[in-house]
Amino acid sequence: MESLINIQHFGAKLRSKDGLFTVTLPDLNGGPARVEEFAAPHVQTILLHPKTSLTTDAALLAERHGITTIILDEDGEPTIFLAGTHPSRSLEIWKHQLLLHGTPEGLDFARQWLCIKVQRKLEWMPKLKSYRQDQPEALKIIDDTAASLQDTLARLRSQSLQNVPAAAAELRGIEGNGQKTYLALINSLLPRQYKFDGRSRQPAQDIFNAMLNYGYGILYNWTESALWESGVNPYFGFLHSGERQHKALLYDFIEPYRPWVDRVVFKLCVRKIATLQHAEPHAKGGLWLNAEGRKLLAKAVYEKFRRKLTVSDAETAWTLRTSIAKDAVQFAQRIHRLKALLGTGTNRTQHSISLLAH
What we know:
This protein has helices at residues 56-64, 89-100, 104-130, 136-158, 164-189, 207-230, 248-253, 258-270, 291-305, 320-336, 339-342, 346-356; strands spanning 4-7, 13-17, 20-25, 34-39, 45-48, 53-54, 68-72, 78-82, 279-281, 287-289, 308-309, 318-319. The protein is an alpha/beta fold and 358 residues long.
């Protein structure tokens, strides 16, 4: 069953015929075009890339079935959302996101994602130890960091969420302190030429942060696409700021996947595969990756995210990248089922109108 029609072939056209979506893919070498068909009830999202098109009949069919249709720009960024006069499933999800904003229930989603992030850091600790059995000082730092992260996890789980603004600040502070301890551990295990002085962005001040920034950039693109495809709006978040043009939900939702990128960058640096030859000076000072550096890191990130995620209660495993899409779909389903919990009380309705006015 198809849930996504992703049209990116040059000159491809989406039409409707007998209640089906038909995608015509021209042969750029002059051969016969290929036609693919999709049953409308099985489609949830349509993505249209530049140099593709759809007919009004196809747009009407999508609207009748509550299908989200998004037009992307040249960089693959969602730019236009086609909405009919009847609310689609995506608009229902967006409404629930707005109603959840500023509530303990919404903040609890963000807390769960932070907890998963810390758990994945902890899962890395035994492997870090296994390579350093003859380094007592390193083993002690790893053990101390693991204990600190366990404390971070316990504090996140026990934090009261009733006073949402104060609780959100507390969650950010708890996770931020844990992140500092975690980065200090990574820094202590790196070869001398890769040492760094905390996180630096736009631009990075060292090769490690330059690699990390680019790796996170790849992850941002994958995660945002997964959210849009599942019907979730990346701008309506719970923990991060909800200012205009700020993808607050994306910044909330991406947290559990960052440790996977951390491992990739750490491996490239600790094995001295990445070097200063993979970076160049940035116009604003500091460093950013050159073409060879971007190629090196992208290849490593893609290889990492093609690996299977171990799921104890599932018969079949899936790749790390697929798990992002599955998590997005599951999140969309959860907030779509929150009608009874959310209700339409005056305070929540006024809050959602206030958020829309930003």
